[in-house]
Amino acid sequence: RRCGRTPRISSSPNTNNMTIKMPHQLFINGEFVDAEGRKTYKTINPTDGTAICDVSLAQISDVDKAVAAAKEAFEEGEWGRMNPRDRGRLLYKLADLMEEHQEELATIEAIDSGAVYTLALKTHVGMSIQTFRYFAGWCDKIQGSTIPINQARPNRNLTFTKKEPIGVCAIVIPWNYPLMMLAWKTAACLAAGNTVVLKPAQVTPLTALKFAELAARAGLPKGVVNILPGSGAVVGQRLSDHPDVRKLGFTGSTEIGKHIMRSCAVSNVKKVSLELGGKSPLIIFADCDMDKAVRVGMSSVFFNKGENCIAAGRLFVEETIHDQFLTKVGEIKKMKIGDPLDRSTNHGPQNHKAHLDKLLEFCQAGVQEGATLICGGKQVQRPGFFFEPTVFTDVQDHMYIAIEESFGPVMILSKFKSGEVDEVLRRANATEYGLASGVFTQDISRALYVSEKLNAGTVFVNTYNKTDVASPFGGFKQSGFGKDLGQEALNEYLKTKAVTIEY
Length: 503
Fold this sequence. Notes:
Layout: E1 9-15, E2 18-23, E3 26-28, E4 31-33, E5 40-45, E6 50-56, H1 60-75, H2 78-81, H3 84-100, H4 102-113, H5 117-136, E7 146-147, E8 157-165, E9 168-172, H6 178-191, E10 195-199, H7 206-218, E11 225-227, H8 232-241, E12 247-251, H9 254-268, E13 271-275, E14 280-284, H10 290-302, E15 312-318, H11 319-329, H12 353-368, E16 372-375, E17 390-393, H13 400-403, E18 410-416, H14 421-429, E19 436-440, H15 444-453, E20 458-461, E21 480-481, H16 488-491, E22 494-502
Parallel strand pairs: 9-10, 9-12, 10-11, 12-13, 14-15, 14-19, 15-18, 17-18, 19-20
Antiparallel strand pairs: 1-2, 3-4, 5-6, 7-8, 8-22, 13-21, 16-17
């Protein structure tokens, strides 16, 4: 089972004018190893539906080995004793290695997830590198405080707090930004001094395994990072139930988030952070900069082919500009749909076949309920999992497509009457989700009022999708709780100890 320093690598010599090397085994305790029983599955290229390679499929015993390795690395290994500044140096080195391999990582992301290469390079991989650099800088700045308390006269007291790592953390991530979601959680987790067992999405495991190779090359001690491709029902469930895992960070659906939260409670009251579904409203007022609102409004829906947790799930457009807005949005018909490795492609394939099928059902529901389908709604007639960018208008609040998340390239337009600011806010907030939101207006008072009243973890004003590694990201209501990114993300992976001394 042990492969030592010679892991099995899938090599693709002429992909995107380079040779890419992809590890495809589990990564446990610093080594690439087969799953128990040498179990594997095929990971699929969504551009043509063909298999990229066989990937090891983790079993319960593999999870137990990875957790044991992470526990030993935390409690007995050099990682737990390392100076925070030295820990930061390793994370900086890892970020440098990711940057050296950014074209290779972006190519792997394109063929495994369908992300357009140019976007993968800038966002999927680029922001991942930025995230590790940002949190590397936090390693030696995690500190407690001294607190004045009532003295026990005639004696005196000193109380101070320490911020300590939690221990073994499990991270379970989705398939839409495979490397970036790994980075958002893992960088903060490692900066805080924890060890990690990460389950990538079963359909997009390859950049996580390449990351494991780079982490080992950067000098992270064995057991600090462990990567287990596999199913949610087996690997995700075992991580939720495992008595030695003390924290679980999850990004995915609200339904699975609730299940994970329940399992974490029943097993050992794990600390949990959840970034779940969204149906983010974007409100466009008549006084907006129309060209910018159209451009950003299209991006808010179609960015990363709509596979974006903060995508604008509903656009509320003031009725006096609705028709003009709709005409300008017709530009999406000019988007070039095609191979994500082609530099001129704007719109790649959906991530996997089951998701494509869900999008077809979603659009059929919209038509059946009486929404007006302006364009799209169909699979593109070519190999692979391509879906036409879609626009619906005349969408009423009670309709399925107004309530549920598509997670695809589907624009949902609804009108609102001029002057009815509070009414459109009521409609925008009438959802169980609260991940992101946006408003376009040139009236600063209205922008501030709307941003105050929108019940979401992020509000964009005259922009959208503008996330940054320094700004906290997370939802309200059934979009979950806890933050990724920014200083606040560290709190998800730390515990506070209060020490009181009498003298």
